Structure formats: C-alpha cells, structure tokens
TrEMBL record:
Function, in words: Specifically methylates the guanine in position 2445 (m2G2445) and the guanine in position 2069 (m7G2069) of 23S rRNA.
Record key words, sorted: Cytoplasm, Methyltransferase, RNA-binding, rRNA processing, S-adenosyl-L-methionine, Transferase
Gene name of the encoded protein: rlmL
Species: Acinetobacter apis
Domain THUMP: start-end pairs: 49-167
Signal peptide bounds: none
Entry's family note: Belongs to the methyltransferase superfamily. RlmKL family.
One Gene Ontology cellular component annotation held by this UniProt entry: cytoplasm
PROSITE patterns according to UniProt: N6_MTASE, THUMP, UPF0020
Enzyme class: transferase
Protein name, UniProt field: Ribosomal RNA large subunit methyltransferase K/L
GO MF: 23S rRNA (guanine(2445)-N(2))-methyltransferase activity; RNA binding; rRNA (guanine-N7-)-methyltransferase activity
C-alpha cells in the first residue's frame, strides 16, 4: 500500500442534490477525474487541491482521504459486519497516520441494505484502532467525540470497508460564525448553494434583502461570496494532527486567502438589508456577523426588526438590480400548513409591489407553498436540509397586476333575457348607480343586488372579479320546479349583464339558519381567493361555507376602525375571520386581540394576518388570538382596551357554548362586561344583524350610547337599511 502522503484520491461529501454544483466548484479548485455518486464525489488531486477544497468549498460537507480498503473474502447473507469492521481496523498500522498522544473519533457510514448496529459497530472500529496502536507502539490514543484532533471516516460497504482520514474534521458547513441560533436555520453550505444557483457573484446586485433573516445565514454567506472570503478561513481542520500534514503549504494557501479577502473588502458593497419580526433573530444576526469577521463593515448593513408589512422605500434607481433571498418560517417555525401558504402569498404580494422584474430565491417546505410565488420562468431546486427536504424557488418577480374595481371597466350593454328582463334592467341600474362611488372609493367587494324584485329572490355580491350568488330558499308554497326555472333565468341574466363566465360565479342557497347549521360546511370544493379592501388583502371562500369570510355590510365600520385605531389596543369580539383586526393592525394599532369560539375561523384569521405580512407568533405578543366563549373570556380577563368591536350572532347554540346565546336577551350582560374592559377614553363599536333588535334602557342609562347605523350603511346596502344596526358606546364623563 502507498503511504498516505502520496495518495491522490479524495472523496468530497455533500447534501443530496448538490452533486452537480459541487462538481463545478471543485473543478475550479483543481480537482480532476471526478466520479459522481449520490451525496459524494470521488476525485484525483494533489494535497494542495484537497487543502484548497477544505478552505474554499462553500458547498461541501466533508473532504476525506481514503487510507485503507479492507476487502471482504465473502459477502454471504449471514454476516457479522461489526467484526469485519474490527478486523479491518486492527490490521492497519494507524501509527503511520497519527500519534497515540492525539485524540480521535470514528464516524461510521453504512451503505444501504447492510444490517448492523451502528453504535456497536462504531465501538468495534474504535477497539480495532486502539488494539493496532497497542500492537505497534504499545500506547493507546484517547477518544474525544466532541472535539477530536483526528476523525476517521469509515464506510461499511457490501464488498469492501473503507477507512479514511477526515481532513475537514468537523463538517465544513460549520464555518465557525454561528454563535447564536434561531429556530430551523438553514445549513451554511445549503445557503451558499442557493446563492450560487442564483448567480449572486455574477449578478452583482446593488441591493440584497433577506426579509426573514433568522440568524443571518444568507446575509453572511452573501458577504463571504462578495468579499471573496474563504469559508474555512478561521476554523480548525482535521488534518492538523495528521503525520502527513504539510504545515508550510497550508500556511501559504491560508495567507493567500487572507490577502484576497482584505483586497475585496476595499471594494464597494451593495445595500444590504436584514429584517426579522423577531428581535432575538435581529440580535442573533448582528452577533453572528461580528463572529464572522464583518464587524468593520457592520455599519453598512441595515439590521432591523420589521415585518413584511413594514418594509421601507428601498429607493432603487432605474437600472439598479436587487436580489431577495429568504428562508420563511415554514413548518417548525410557523406551525400550520394553511398559514404557511398564506404567508407565501403575502411574500409574493410584497415582492411584486417592491421588486418587480428582480431575481429572488425563496425556500419552501412544500412545492405547493412555492407555487403561489408570482415568478417569471421559475426554477425549483430540491435539497435536503439535514433530514428535512426543502424546495428552493428561483426566478424573476412578475410585476404586480394593475388593480382596479371591476365596475371601472364595466359598462351597461343592451341585454335581453326572455322571462327575466325586469331583473336584467334592475341589475344594470344598480351597477350603473354604484359605479362612480365604487371607482372613487376603490371598492372591490360589494353587493350588486339583494332581492330587489319579489320574483328574483337572490343576493348578488361581487368579490374582486368573481360573483357570489345566494338564492334565498323559496317558501314551501312555491312550486320547486318553477323556483328552479326562475333561478336559472337569474343566473343567465347575471352572466349576460356582468360578462363573467360560469367559472367566476359561485352559487349557494341561503335558507334560514339556526343553531349548528349556520356554521356547517356547504361544500368541500374550497375555492379560496384573495380580495382587496382598503389597505388589506383578505381571503374569501366562496364555496365551503354559507358566509364567505367577509361580511360586506361591515365594510364602513372596518374602515372607520382603521382610521381611528393608530396607537391603540384593539379588541375584536366574535372576531370571525378577524378582518377588522387585520385593518387595525395594518393601520398601526398598538396591539390586536381577536376572540372567537371557532378554531376554524381563528386559523383563517391567522392566514389573513400572514397574508398581509403581519406576524401571528411574535414573541412580544402584539397580535393575539383566543379560541374562547366571548362571555367567559370578557369576565375572566383584566386587560384594558382602547377600542372594542363587537358583532355577535343573533343566536347561537354551538357545541362549545354551554347554553344558548340570544343577542336581544344577552346583550346587556355582554356590553357590561365589555365596558369593564374598556379604558376610560375608549370606545366600543357594537353591531348586530337582528332586525327586531332594541337597545336595552339599562345600557342607555349607564353609558354614553350613540346609534351610528346610518353612517355604517354604504351605498351598496342603501336598498336594505335593516341589514344591521350599529352603536358607538363610551363611558360617561369622557
């Protein structure tokens, strides 16, 4: 066998999926005759090549040098693999590789389909090495599994076992700068691979942004590439205790790397922005940048606590290039898959607004999350972050579509529908009357028709560029066939007047609801869309439930809340999908608290929040969600709020609610409890849809109560003044 110093075969390991990129990289570092395996490359090279890969590879996991191959005489089914490994280890003179004064550790890897207890087999390899030393020099080295001076990499194969010296020592992804961690970080070499795939070195962006920077890995790896810093410049390696180590050669290579980095530091850097909603992440990024050696340029990097909803104006000039790269808090960092998808929708919206036509790279846990990103010519890179598969979506951001109310481009055209001409005329009249207002106020979701004519007992609501048509169930005295024919005529007229296709019109039958049925699913199709209201983007579901997730008649009160809530603590009772809370949060509320009995609606609420770039798991608990009975929640708590919105159901007997709730009967107790939680200068907005509701005299006497119904009925509901009633309630003496 050749001595270790003259061996010219090396292995470089990597995460699955990085083999091609790694091959490109080590070729540039001098490797030749490269043979590709899954998770491993075998190459020919000098010791200098191996040193350079250890120092400069941004993608590799380990560089190992095969020392000894133990060929097996037989490979029958019944094998004692652990004893084979011991035999191979004990039969080699390890004193040729390292001194008995050195500490060592064994890293055992086993090929597929080989059955062995890896813990016991590792122990037997160790025994073999120790026995070999005792036989040759009469001394034994010590084991150190945490910081060994020598690491032996052993591959248990089907026909041979390979014993290698791990030149890298610890995994090469450990650059030595990650002193402070956040949840679910990406490995450094994977971050570097993503940056390499995005061609950051040739792109030379004028601005780099990581809006969810975590512990700062992407920012630090970007800086390492842009400042020509060798990733292994300050870490220790596994060859220092090896007898064949060429100290002078290593010193020369390392000095050359130091000079390259110092020269590159004098070159102009792009604007670099690192944001996170978690202050601990911001702090970790700053400290890790210092640990990575970038303290001299720390003042050039903007590291700030910001949510997606809180991006500044980046002031990109015409012709300048930006690059956005991020590892959003998917999976372990956020929790719920539904919220994750909404988060990616929110990211996409932000990117389209701020960085159209700019390159991005975004990590996702599932392809479905990445699919919502609006990118031109998207490419997907599948990698393994430890045992967790991840998908990297790369591409150029599409420009944000021009948003305008549907009615802005709609014009009344001559339409004839036999048997439904009156309905056609009324629908056109309504839409014409609403057009000027909707365009001026930028109203995207509104009611176009609400049973205006007795023969056409439907409600027609516009959600963006889709229609939600509700048929009020006809009385039992009406012939079902006649009612069905009338409804089909209405649908034909709606399509003709609006010009919308069948797939943009969603139909439901609205019978009188009570008890449990008001919350039951109507469908399992789950047609969910994003619509705009004021500054908010909101998720609506036009198929699954009777209600869509957005009560259109409460639009004015939501916008009123947004105008008044800045700096205030906001409480939303019976919050449903928390659309009012979203408006409050976007308008600068000091905090929002949303309470509803339904976990389904609270999960929907969280989706609405992350869709708008607002955090739902923030450490400072700025936005809270409680699945609770509102009555009991108000009674048990003590926190005070500056603004409270209460929109209770008319009647409820939910399985989770002990007893029943009747708004007329129970509003006295409800409002008293709410007023106990209201700050001295605060306001309660109370609304309900019970047409026969009357505010109790006791409430009128106890508090400063002003009915504001007229100001909360928008033009699209003027034809139905009884859609709801609303009050403003304050403490007296304020």
């Amino acid at each position: 066998m050749n001595s270790p110093q003259r061996l010219s075969t090396y292995w470089v390991t990597c995460a699955d999926g990085l083999e091609l990129l790694l091959e490109e990289e080590i070729t540039l570092l001098g490797a030749t005759h490269i043979e590709r395996r899954t998770g491993r490359l075998i190459f020919k090279g000098t010791l200098e090549t191996a040193y350079r890969i250890c120092l400069w590879s941004r993608l590799a996991s380990r560089v190992v040098m095969p020392i000894y191959e133990h060929e097996l005489e037989h490979t029958h089914d019944v094998r004692d693999v652990a004893e084979e490994l011991f035999e191979g280890a004990v039969n080699f003179d390890w004193s040729l590789i390292f001194a008995p004064q050195s500490t060592f550790a064994i890293r055992l890897h086993v090929e597929r389909d080989i059955k062995v207890n890896t813990q016991f087999a590792t122990l037997r390899v160790k025994d073999g090495v120790v026995d070999s030393f005792m036989d040759t020099v009469g001394k034994r080295p010590s084991i150190d599994i945490k910081q060994p001076e020598i690491t032996l990499y052993v591959l248990a194969g089907k026909t041979s076992h390979f014993y290698c010296l791990d030149l890298s020592g610890d995994s090469l992804h450990k650059r030595g700068y990650r002193h402070y961690m956040t949840d679910a970080p990406i490995k450094e070499n994977l971050a570097a691979a993503i940056l390499h795939k995005a061609q950051i070195a040739t792109l030379k962006p004028d601005l780099i942004l990581d809006p969810m920077c975590g512990s700062g890995t992407f920012i630090i790896e970007s800086l390492m590439i842009l400042t020509d810093r060798a990733p292994g410049l300050t870490r220790r390696f596994g060859f220092n205790g090896w007898h064949g180590h060429d100290h002078d050669l290593w010193t020369q290579i390392k000095s050359e790397a130091t000079a390259r980095h110092e020269a590159a530091l004098n070159q102009p850097l792009p604007q670099i922005h690192a944001y996170d909603a978690d202050w601990d992440a911001v702090k970790a990024t700053r400290l890790n940048l210092v640990a990575a050696g970038f303290e001299p340029i720390l003042h050039q990097i903007k590291i700030e606590e910001r949510t997606l909803a809180d991006w500044p104006d980046f002031n990109l000039q015409a012709g300048q290039r930006a690059f956005v790269v991020t590892n959003p808090p998917y999976g372990e960092r956020l929790g719920e898959k539904a919220s994750n998808k909404a988060l990616y929708m929110g990211i996409s919206s932000r990117l389209q607004t701020f960085f159209p036509h700019q390159p991005v790279a975004v990590i996702a846990a599932q392809v479905e999350q990445a699919d919502v990103l609006a990118l031109n010519d998207p490419k997907t890179l599948r990698l393994m972050n430890g045992k967790l598969p991840i998908y990297v979506r790369l591409g150029e951001v599409k420009a944000a579509p021009v948003q305008q109310p549907f009615l802005q481009t709609w014009h009344a055209e001559p339409v004839e529908v036999e048997g439904a001409q009156d309905f056609v005329n009324r629908l056109q009249k309504n839409m014409t009357a609403l057009k000027k207002w909707a365009v001026k106020e930028q109203v995207y979701c509104l009611r176009l028709y609400d049973a205006d004519l007795p023969d056409f007992n439907v409600a027609v609501d516009l959600y963006g560029d889709r229609l939600h048509v509700q048929e009020y169930a006809p009385p039992k005295t009406i012939d079902p066939e006649k009612a069905k024919k009338r409804f089909n005529l209405a649908l034909a007229a709606i399509r003709a007047v609006t010009g919308l296709n069948r797939d943009a019109i969603f139909i439901k039958t609205r019978a009188k609801q009570s008890g449990k049925t008001q919350y039951e699913k109507q469908s399992t199709a789950s047609k969910r869309f994003v619509v705009r209201e004021g500054n908010a983007q909101l998720l609506v579901n036009l198929t699954d439930y009777l209600d869509t997730g957005l009560f259109l008649d409460h639009r004015p009160i939501r916008l009123r809340i947004a105008e008044e809530v800045r700096g205030k603590h906001f409480l939303n009772m019976y919050s449903y999908t928390s659309t009012a809370s979203v408006h409050a949060a976007l308008a600068g509320a000091a905090s929002t608290t949303s309470v509803d009995l339904s976990n389904t609606y609270l999960n929907w609420s969280k989706e609405n929040f992350v869709l708008n770039g607002l955090t739902v798991d923030h450490a400072d608990e700025q936005h809270l969600f409680f699945a609770a009975d509102c009555f009991e929640w108000l009674k048990e708590g003590h926190e005070q709020y500056d603004m409270i919105f209460i929109d209770p159901p008319t009647f409820s007997n939910s399985k989770k609610f002990h007893g029943t709730f009747d708004v007329q009967r129970d509003h006295i107790s409800l409002l008293k409890r709410a007023m106990n939680r209201l700050s001295s200068g605060g306001v309660v907005y109370f609304s309900n849809n019970y047409r026969g509701f009357e505010m109790d005299e006791e409430i009128l006497a106890m508090f400063d109560v002003v009915e504001i119904t007229a100001s909360t009925i928008a033009p699209d509901f003027k034809r139905n003044q009884k859609i709801h009633r609303a009050w403003q309630i304050r403490h007296y003496g304020v």
